[in-house]
């Protein structure tokens, strides 16, 4: 299961919530296992999960009739479904012959509601939650929805649940770690495939194409393919262009796709031919920073403490003027999950967190250098999810 | 330019708006030409465009310091930029040597604001809009943002601008039509590549992989790759599985990627070996529906009228029980732009609209059939953006 149910229950009890409602796609998939295509590729389509405290009622998915096929096909662990809106399908004579078709036909027979909010209102009323304290993740709703919901259910006490979902999702289940390990490896292999296309005159786009194809071949979907050469490697979000590879160029990868909805975000640096001495020295300092983080992180350690220490290591090891806002972040269904490894963070590392540890350095007009690894926090320290180290890669000309 | 400026001005005057503010990624890119990676791949990062009525002030982009590299690299047509938040970069000695680096360094010198809302508030105040009537697209804001903005600018009269942006975006500029034509062709070529992988025992995933790779090769990004065999072709949102191709299977494609941020959405049907007679008959009726739409659409025609006529054609041509909510929709930066071709729509076709015309038919347990073409409405009628017709494709076994 993706959901860390124990952690959810803990937070719901602590905040005395009778139920929580997920509305953002990441939270809906996380709570139910249901991936509703329309809300993932557009903004607007509404799918929710209502998760009552134990013994109040069963968890329930609320989704449009036009997405019931995906429920039938995915068999999410939340079994109760409420549908809204019309979508015309014919039930063929063969529907009973296939489990998914049978389930699709059965879901189609559920009573329909006028729209998403009407379905949500009725779900809360039927679950006896019309006077409850409900944690609502508002971020997937449309403008006006929250006000309409409050008007329909005037006795409900609404609590913002964005921070709750963020906190619950920070500590990964085994299934989540497996997916994250897999997508990290896909990204590593994609970097290797991109570098195989590196030759004098090849463009950033050529390498990005090779990168994305390898990601697709590995079962992933391209998301983040920042690949820059030379002075363009200093553009933090560099989008691949026709810039041609030249001897001595830095090649910066800040990349990662999605695998079964989970994100990768890793960084590696290569040079085309021998690296300039300064690049080698600076890169080594950045690598030492990430290596230090891997050695130092323990459950219970404040993330802000690690931040200070990593910045100090990079400064000591070769970039005395190094400045940075954060040296890493969680990753999961979203590219930036909790925690944030920054000076101002009050979070602590916990067993099961999956982190991107990173020490980027951008020098406009010259180059950007960056090491970023994905790791999982274990009882005894950090386990790297990477097959490669973060060494500077020298591509032969 | 992507923006249909004349249409925007027309609507702003009609609604007596002194300015409009875009917050959703589609509207930000549309208004400015600026594609801010973080807001496109995550929910949360904030980038805005403030567009005052003429003679009040210049349009302005508001974005985080960490995205200024993308502004430098993309040279959006909105030239005024306001940044917020910190992001540490070093300006190297070579920054002046490259136009993009130079521009990046210059943008970095702009005065910084604490956060997105502080930057937006100051932009509106400096433009003399603190007492104005402002159209706001709220959909990209985070929960609480609208209330905070209203508190900061208590004299502003806020008007919801979601419908305005939707209406302006419905009529495409030449540059938009070019991108849409290109992405439609990429989708067609990707279907051809997928079908080249069709052989007995090949899986839906095998075809989807071939599809996505061709999309990447064509310069696109995979988004919608619904490819289903046999009974799975009746799943509206079918996600490719290990289902193996068998003789007589229908193969349904409802697919389309993104090219320079613009979406494709087309559908084609193939059969593996000879199609069952009913598939041939039904498909022909659906094709006639789309062909009729291509012949009938004229600027000024109500979309609801076309909807009724297309459904009648499909019924008459071979599926007497055909029922459908809509027979098409606009497409652009979003997969569902205005207009909607449905019974309840009050929109009319206008020159320059780009449409997906579609007649899907789903019979659970048996098969799904669908024809979907992308077209642009011209003065004299519809111009198809497709290189292929919608004929049933018979793949030799």
TrEMBL record, chains A, B:
Residues 179-378 form the Peptidase M24 domain. Residues 7-171 form the Creatinase N-terminal domain. SUPFAM superfamilies: Creatinase/aminopeptidase, Creatinase/prolidase N-terminal domain. InterPro entries: Creatin/AminoP/Spt16_N (IPR029149), Creatinase/aminopeptidase-like (IPR036005), Creatinase_N (IPR000587), Pept_M24 (IPR000994), Peptidase_M24B (IPR050659). PANTHER family: AMINOPEPTIDASE (PTHR46112), XAA-PRO AMINOPEPTIDASE P-RELATED (PTHR46112:SF2). This is Peptidase M24. It comes from Mesorhizobium alhagi CCNWXJ12-2. The lineage of its organism: Bacteria, Pseudomonadati, Pseudomonadota, Alphaproteobacteria, Hyphomicrobiales.
């Amino acid at each position: 299961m993706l959901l860390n149910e124990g952690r959810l229950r803990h937070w719901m009890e602590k905040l005395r919530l009778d139920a929580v409602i997920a509305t953002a796609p990441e939270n809906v998939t996380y709570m139910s296992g249901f991936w509703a295509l329309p809300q993932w590729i557009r903004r607007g389509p509404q799918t929710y999960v209502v998760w009552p405290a134990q013994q109040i009622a069963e968890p329930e998915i609320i989704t449009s009739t036009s997405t019931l096929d995906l429920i039938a096909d995915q068999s999410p662990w939340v079994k109760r479904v409420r549908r809204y809106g019309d979508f015309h399908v014919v039930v063929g004579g063969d529907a009973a012959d296939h489990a998914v078709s049978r389930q699709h036909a059965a879901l189609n027979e559920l009573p329909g509601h006028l729209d998403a909010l009407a379905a949500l209102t009725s779900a809360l009323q039927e679950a006896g939650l019309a006077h409850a304290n409900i944690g609502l993740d508002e971020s997937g709703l449309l403008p006006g929805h929250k006000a309409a919901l409050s008007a329909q259910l005037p006795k409900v006490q609404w609590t913002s649940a964005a921070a709750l979902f963020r906190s619950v999702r920070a500590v990964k289940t085994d299934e989540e770690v497996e997916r994250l390990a897999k997508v990290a490896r896909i990204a590593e292999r994609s970097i290797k495939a991109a570098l195989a296309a590196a030759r004098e005159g090849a463009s950033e786009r050529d390498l990005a194409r090779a990168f994305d194809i390898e990601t697709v071949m590995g079962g992933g979907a391209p998301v983040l393919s920042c690949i820059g050469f030379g002075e363009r490697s200093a553009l933090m979000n560099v989008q691949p262009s026709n810039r041609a590879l030249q001897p001595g160029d830095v090649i910066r990868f800040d990349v990662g796709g999605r695998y079964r909805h989970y994100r990768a975000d890793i960084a590696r640096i290569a040079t085309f031919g021998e690296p300039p001495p300064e690049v080698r020295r600076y890169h080594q300092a950045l690598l030492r920073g990430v290596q230090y983080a891997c050695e130092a992180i323990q459950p219970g350690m404040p993330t802000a403490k690690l931040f200070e220490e990593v910045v100090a290591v990079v400064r000591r090891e070769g970039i005395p003027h190094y400045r940075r806002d954060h040296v890493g972040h969680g990753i999961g269904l979203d590219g930036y999950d909790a925690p944030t490894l920054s000076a101002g963070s009050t979070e602590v590392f916990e067993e099961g967190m999956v982190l991107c540890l990173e020490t980027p350095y951008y020098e406009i007009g010259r180059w950007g250098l960056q090491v970023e690894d994905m790791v999982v926090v274990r009882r005894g320290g950090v386990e790297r999810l990477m097959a490669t180290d973060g060494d500077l890669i020298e591509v032969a000309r």
